[in-house]
Every structure is written in C-alpha cells, then in structure tokens.
Specification:
The protein is an alpha/beta fold. Helices cover 55% and strands 13% of the residues. Pfam families: TPM_phosphatase.
Amino acid sequence: MGIRRISRHLLHYHWQLKRIFTADVLARIEQAIKHGERSHAGQLRFVVEGALDGRPLWRNQPPRERALDLFSHLRIWDTAHNNGVLIYLLLADRDVEIIADRGIHAKVGAAQWETICRAMEADFRAGRFEQGVIQGVAAVSRELARHYPPHAGGTNELPDAPVVL
C-alpha cells in the first residue's frame, strides 16, 4: 500500500464527493436509471464512494474487490432473472467497476463491461462526472435491453436512487 494512495483517500476525496455529486446531479442520474429501465427488464444500481477508509483502506482493498462487496451488500445479485448490474465509482482512484450478475454477464462478457468502464473513466479524467455516469448508465441499459427486453407486468426489483458512500 502506497503513501500516495493513503493520502489521496484520507485527505482529498471525501469533501470533493459532495461538490461533484450534488443533489441535482444525483437526481439526474436517478432519472437516467429510471429512463434506462423502461427499455429493459434488467436492474441497475449506481454507487459512488469518495474514498476508502477504515479496514478497506488499510487492507489496500482494490476497487474491483470493493465493488464485489457492495454488489453483495446491496443484494444486486438477488434479482429474479440474475440480471442485476452495479456501476461502482471509487472517486479517489478514479476507477469504475461494473459488476454484473451471472445471467447478464454470460450474455455480455467482461470485454464489453470493460469498454464501458474505460469510456466513463475518460470522461472523469476530463472532469465530466455527470456526463460520464449518465452515458455509462445509457450504455449498460443498451446491453440490458438487447438481452432482457421489457415485459408487461415487470417490477422494479431494486431502488433507482444512486448510493453515495
């Protein structure tokens, strides 16, 4: 674990989270998720974490492992058709991870999820956080729509509101 990562997580990004992801921005992200879910029968969650602290930081937990923990904790895996998807942003590392349940992951594959993550990260490097998230939500929604078209009587199994940690 490097001192640069520790200082980045402890000193810089907790306060920047609220500046970047204001209530208005979070509301627009929620609307993008709601809009996307009208085009498919999948379930999508967005989680943004300013920085790691406590045990995850001292364990030097990688963003992918943290995303897997949150995927489980938020029960995104617990959907009727195994089509839940988590978009996770660890702001301090400017890292995006997409964790997809086995049903949708088998149809889309790791390479496509990685392409969406890298596109989002490019927007974040340019300071376009809202745009990056909304375009990422749209890209994931397109993949879900290809494999899980909407159906009559479909239910929204997971909340659409972004989670801010």
